Amino acid sequence: MSLSAAVLLAAGSSPSPTPSPTAPAMPSLQDAHESATNAAGWVEENWSTWLAIGLRVLLIVVIATVLRAVVRRAITKLIDRMNRRPGSGGGTALSGLLVNAERRRQRSEAIGSVLRSVASFVILGTAALMVLGTFQINLAPLLASAGVAGVAIGFGARNLVTDFLSGVFMILEDQYGVGDSIDAGVASGEVIEVGLRVTKLRGDNGEIWYVRNGEVKRIGNLSQGWSTAGVDVTVRSDEDLDKVRETLGAVGERMSKEEPWNEMLWGPIEVLGLDSVLLDSMVVRVSAKTMPGKSLTVERELRWRVKRAFDAADIRIVGGPEIPGQAAATPDPTAGVAAPSAYASTVSPQSIAASPISPPSTTK
């Protein structure tokens, strides 16, 4: 066997070495060129579409922003004009007293807040839907889900929605404002704050009532228009009616010329006549139109003046002191005592006849 054959036999019998892991193949210049070419082709094909979408989105956002700013500015100017304009009441010179500055301010701010919120919600919501539509997103499931969620929230928060809507209409219709005295059914007092959900009232004893606007079914405003002061004067039935009328007329005329009653009285004090006639008394009705909320003050002062005028004119009122010389005689204390009865004595024939019969004895 030759030397070369022996070497080959030895090489074939020895174990072959473990092959080493192959290194990742590096992309060649040709592969990189192909990838760049494909990307450039995709960009060249779609750049106009993406540019159009971007410009459309930008245009929508710009228009929505500008429109929202313009609408809010217009609402702010409208609210400022409402604040500067005096309250529109009945068209008279005194109508400006019906709505004070604080009431106008709160009413206008509430209206402005509602209008600005509604305008922002409508404009921005419409812009958001238009942007999603630009990206070719199907809005039908989104709108359906929003509708279902809105219905669920509406049923769950129906009291809150009712309070809010009632507050909006109360403010828009100017049913009451800060400083008004109202009777809301569930509570009454002076309005100290008007909100979209709750109205705060201060009662006669100083307590504060929080009245939900949705719970108010009827409202009696005691501070709008004018009030009526009515006084019932009760005199004896034998008084001279002409003298009573003359005295009351003089009291009313003198009171309407003095301060501060001449500002509180919006009309003359009128003697309306007899309200009722009884056996021992007569009721004369006196009435006057007053500034809103001042009827009780005018009534108290009018009673004070009427009492003093009646005392000076010797006109007696029911329950007043008797005139000297006409005092009634002292009544006989025994006049109301009944005559003695025959049944008072137990031995009288009437008592014996009325006594019950004793039952017969059962013992033998």
H/E element sequence: HHHHHEEEEEEHHEEHH
Report low-confidence residues grouped into runs of 5 or more.
Answer: 6-11, 13-17, 87-99
What is the structural class?
A: alpha+beta
Helical proportion, percent range: 40-55%
The major β-sheet equals: 5 strands, antiparallel
Nearest-integer average pLDDT: 76
Q: What gyration radius follows from the Cα positions, in whole Å? A: 49 Å
Strand order of the largest sheet: 4-3-2-1-5
- Determine the strand fraction and express it as a percent band: 5-15%
From the N-terminal CA to the C-terminal CA, the straight-line distance is 173 Å
According to DSSP, the number of beta strands is 8
The best one-word shape is elongated
Number of helices: 9
